[in-house]
């Protein structure tokens, strides 16, 4: 959805950039002024945030494809990572009852 939104916004920015006569006329009728530059800026900001969303969604998708290839669920992966880092946590000794780092 973010990709489709970005592609659509790019086409809108292009059409605002070339600013055909009907576009300028419709802006004058609706807004009583031409707001092409303001719309371009707002749409480019939206494209920037959509691009960031695409990066995070791409990373999440690749991560879950990797998990599927390994035959793991997300929960199993988290438990596996927690088990590998257990040595760095505080462990209590039974004999003395004191914390040992």
Account of the protein in words:
- 73% of the residues lie in helices and 4% in strands.
- A two-stranded antiparallel sheet has the order 1-2.
- It has one domain.
- The protein is mainly alpha-helical and 101 residues long.
- It has helices at residues 2-18, 21-31, 36-70, 74-84; strands at 91-92, 99-100.
- It is rod-shaped and about 65 Å long.
Estimate percent helicity.
over 70%
- What pattern of helices and strands is seen along the backbone? HHHHEE
How many strands appear in the DSSP assignment?
2
Biggest β-sheet strands, sense, barrel: 2 strands, antiparallel
Oligomer: single chain
From the alpha carbons, calculate the radius of gyration and give it in angstroms. 27 Å
On the 0 to 100 scale, the average pLDDT is 81
Q: Ranges with pLDDT <50 over ≥5 residues?
A: none
Strand content: under 5%
Report the end-to-end length measured between terminal Cα atoms.
48 Å
What is the strand arrangement across the widest sheet?
1-2
Shape: rod-shaped
Work out the helix count. 4
């Amino acid at each position: 959805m973010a990709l489709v939104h970005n592609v659509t916004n790019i086409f809108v920015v292009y059409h605002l950039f070339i600013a055909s006569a009907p576009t300028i006329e419709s802006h004058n009728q609706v807004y009583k002024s031409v707001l092409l530059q303001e719309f371009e800026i707002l749409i480019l900001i939206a494209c920037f945030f959509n691009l960031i969303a695409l990066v995070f969604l791409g990373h999440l998708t690749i991560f879950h494809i990797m998990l599927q290839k390994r035959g793991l669920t997300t929960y199993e992966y988290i438990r596996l990572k927690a088990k590998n880092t257990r040595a760095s946590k505080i462990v209590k000794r039974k004999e003395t009852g004191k914390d040992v780092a």
